Amino acid sequence: MALAFICFLLFLAGGITFSVELQDNLDKQWTSSQSYPNEPEHSCSYWDVLQYLNLTKNNDMYTMTRPVKNSKNGTQVEIEMRIYTILDVREADQTFILYVWLFMDWKNEYIGWNENYFCGITEVAVPREALWMPDITIEEMTEKDKAPPSPFLSVFSDGWVKYRDDKIVMSTCKMHIFYFPFDIQRCSLSFKSILYNDEQLNININGNSTDITKKSLDTIRMQYEWKLLNITAENITGDYFGSNQDVIVYTITMERKSALYIVNFLLPVLFFLCLDFASLLMSNSGEKISFKITVLLAVTVMQLILNEILPFTSSRIPLIVIYCIGIFAMMLLSLLESILVNYVMEIDSSSKEDMTENDSKLKIKNASPIASAYNEMTDETPSTYNEGSSRQLTELFLAVEKVSDELGEMKKTFLGKKSEEKKSGYWTEVAKKIDKIFSIVYVLGALVFLSVIFLKWVVKSFKMKQRGTFEQHGQRFFKEPPPS
Predict the structure, then answer these.
(1) What domain range is 126 assigned to?
(2) Strands (E), 173-321
(3) Angle of helix 389-424 relative to helix 426-472, nearest 10 degrees?
(4) Claim: this prediction has a pTM higher than 0.70
(5) Which CATH number covers residue 106?
(6) Which keywords accompany this UniProt record (predicted)?
(7) Fewer CB within 10 Å, N or C, the chain?
């Protein structure tokens, strides 16, 4: 009986031990099912992580195809762009050049590890050639990126891969230069895949427009002649070559710093117009015409400089061109008016010269009979005088009467000269009236023209700044007018 009881106790103890061992085995299997296969214990180096991921050698499995375990699943890609420098905006060929920071995150379903088994390592850096990367391109780019690509990718334990790259983007941008140099330009950058459609590659924006603008304003270092106002990001789906693709469109709004153009262009042209105003105080002569021609040629040189700045493909004539042409036309009219006034005044000058020549001839003609009579009287001898005194007295009487007649004619000639002088000053008075009226109209017309031009510049600049402020807060109250 005692032996049977001892055997029963031994059997009971063995069953309990077996159940405990069985439970331990089940716990180990559950734990292993929750972790990654073949995962080492307590490895604390990056090399151990790479060995675990099979990234220490060339593994085509990670680079040949899109990293999804089910081909029907789409790869999630998040994109964020920040502007570091606005390098150049070329109006002549409508090109936009800037230096950007590009951040891309995507999910790789074949990459991942439990950081608890690797001393808390959550991130490793691998060469960009070791893993698959989304083929994201910028649709508006016209030249290949000249900046060297970033050589590494950041791989995280949850399977997300992050890539940061610096790019020099030279893209096309349709510019509206009607209000140059007080214009605000909007250039877009469209990020899309070259090959994958929207079901295979899901491209999303990392952040909202307000955050993107704030980060870019904090990041930006140099803007040259442009000031960044805001950046708006929009996620759209477009039809490209028969397939739908996700596209992220970044719209960059920037304002031109116009102070340099005001000092170097607008003010000099305005000063030339003021010089033309001052020439109205000069007497009408050849020197005045020469001065006006010199000022007109100076404005022509400024127009040639402007022609090198503005693009040839502009659909509307910019206000600055209207400004220059208007000033040039007014100065040309002023020059033509001076030529007309000089021509009218020359009519009086030519009539005075004709009268002076006629008076000199008349004096010579009137003086010749008197001189001949005087010579005849002085040439007479005393003997002749005694012989024919009566005849001499008669001749002397006739000579005196002739002299009196000639004096009357000279008096009439002198009075006629006075009346002709009065008549000859008529055209000079007409020329002075024309010059006075034209000067008043010219100055008033120029002031009205300049007021309209500058008012359009100021009002449009104010509206565009308001629109940029509203867009920065996600509101759109103004619509861009279609190009005419």
Answers:
(1) 46-257
(2) 184-193, 201-205, 226-240, 243-256
(3) 10
(4) no
(5) 2.70.170.10
(6) Ion channel, Ion transport, Membrane, Signal, Transmembrane, Transmembrane helix, Transport
(7) N
